[in-house]
């Protein structure tokens, strides 16, 4: 029996659609695996009632199939589904790390990112790896077709999750199929600024680098209260705010001394709109970890 904790993640960070991701300190999924003749899944925790236990429809079950590693899989959800905080990815990442160790498969973490991305494909329709990469590797990650980079960074973040659901599959449907050249140039400038900010642990550059004009406005329209929450976060000292993943969570960067105020301002702004919300104060966190191994 083996247990792995894999963290929530925030993908895109505005300018890095389907490319950037960052591991958060919390929340996290905790996945326990035991060898079995065929895969079965049991889900408890946040939003468990919305998550299929059929292995073909659960990201962890798809990972077990991809690794040819049948197991009884217990998933304790810390990351609520349809949150924009990489819920389905956290289970996939944890299962990939756990089953790789349980069956001694010897895959590298980079190889496990590809396996876990197949789990994501099963639920969102496309094998985007920008959540599973940081959930497995930790840090700030850059995913391309030819590989994945991970760098450690120390930048305060606030993830604010309202009590509304936006499915990644639906939110992918509103992404424009083309963009104007000046918007593409702007996005490249932002992405480079954000990357430099992560490298230098500079919250101002990370926040400025979140600005993006193509995907974000289309996604923001699906999130009640988006403009008011962004404004409140900025007034409280956020250096940048954007949609986390496909939403409805928002992610903000800030200096450490402003983190508490930014978190409160975001929650209050959602509440002023009649929407319950909670905020997670985080830094750029670690990746999946084996927390129990009973041989
Ligand atoms: N292990 C899992 N954890 C969470 N969601 C899962 C899992 N397996 C399948 N799903 C399905 O994936 C969808 C949630 O994923 P997604 O929309 O990407 O949410 P998030 O933005 O939080 O990652 C839901 O339809 C859920 O039923
Ligand atoms: N790049 C994907 C990321 C989805 O993240 P999630 O946390 O909402 O699953 C996208 O933007 O569609």
UniProtKB/TrEMBL annotation:
Its annotated pathway reads: Amino-acid biosynthesis; L-threonine biosynthesis; L-threonine from L-aspartate: step 4/5
Q: What is its EC number?
A: 2.7.1.39
Residues that bind ATP? 80-90
Which SUPFAM superfamilies does the annotation name?
GHMP Kinase, C-terminal domain, Ribosomal protein S5 domain 2-like
Sorted alphabetically, the Gene Ontology BP terms of this entry are: threonine biosynthetic process
Q: Which GO terms describe its molecular function?
A: ATP binding; homoserine kinase activity
The subcellular location is: Cytoplasm
| Record-annotated GHMP kinase C-terminal domain positions | 197-271
Q: Which residues form the GHMP kinase N-terminal domain?
A: 57-139
> A GO CC term?
cytoplasm
Q: Which domain of life is it from?
A: Archaea
Q: Which reaction does it catalyse?
A: L-homoserine + ATP = O-phospho-L-homoserine + ADP + H(+)
The protein's UniProt keywords, in alphabetical order, are: Amino-acid biosynthesis, ATP-binding, Cytoplasm, Kinase, Nucleotide-binding, Threonine biosynthesis, Transferase
Which protein family is it in? Belongs to the GHMP kinase family. Homoserine kinase subfamily.
Task performed by this protein:
Catalyzes the ATP-dependent phosphorylation of L-homoserine to L-homoserine phosphate.
Give the NCBIfam families listed for this entry.
Answer: PRK01212.1-4, thrB
Q: Supply the name of the protein.
A: Homoserine kinase
Q: Which organism is it from?
A: Halarchaeum salinum
Taxonomic lineage per UniProt? Answer: Archaea, Methanobacteriati, Methanobacteriota, Stenosarchaea group, Halobacteria
């Amino acid at each position: 029996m083996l247990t792995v904790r894999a963290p929530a993640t925030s993908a895109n960070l505005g300018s890095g659609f389907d490319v950037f991701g960052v591991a958060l300190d919390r929340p996290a999924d905790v996945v326990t695996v035991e060898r079995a003749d065929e895969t079965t899944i049991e889900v408890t925790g946040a939003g468990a009632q919305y998550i299929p236990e059929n292995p073909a429809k659960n990201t962890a079950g798809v990972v077990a199939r991809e690794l040819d590693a049948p197991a009884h899989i217990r998933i304790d959800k810390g990351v609520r589904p349809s949150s924009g905080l990489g819920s389905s990815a956290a289970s996939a990442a944890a299962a990939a790390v756990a089953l790789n160790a349980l069956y001694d498969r010897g895959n590298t973490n980079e190889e496990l990112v590809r396996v876990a991305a197949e789990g994501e494909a099963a639920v969102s329709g496309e094998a985007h790896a920008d959540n599973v990469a940081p959930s497995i590797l930790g840090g700030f990650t850059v995913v391309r077709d030819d590989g994945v980079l991970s760098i450690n960074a120390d930048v305060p973040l606030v993830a604010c999750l309202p009590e509304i659901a936006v499915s990644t599959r639906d939110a992918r449907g509103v992404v424009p199929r083309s963009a104007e050249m000046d918007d593409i140039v702007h996005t490249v400038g932002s992405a480079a600024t954000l990357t430099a900010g992560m490298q230098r642990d500079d919250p101002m550059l990370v926040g400025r680098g979140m600005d993006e004009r193509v995907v974000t406005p289309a996604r923001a329209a699906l999130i009640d209260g988006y403009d008011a929450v962004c404004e409140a976060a900025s007034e409280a000292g956020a250096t940048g705010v954007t949609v986390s993943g496909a939403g409805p969570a928002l992610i903000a960067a800030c200096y450490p001394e402003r983190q508490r105020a930014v978190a409160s301002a975001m929650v209050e702004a959602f509440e002023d709109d009649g929407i319950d919300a909670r905020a997670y104060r985080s830094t750029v966190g670690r990746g999946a970890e084996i927390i129990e191994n009973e041989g």
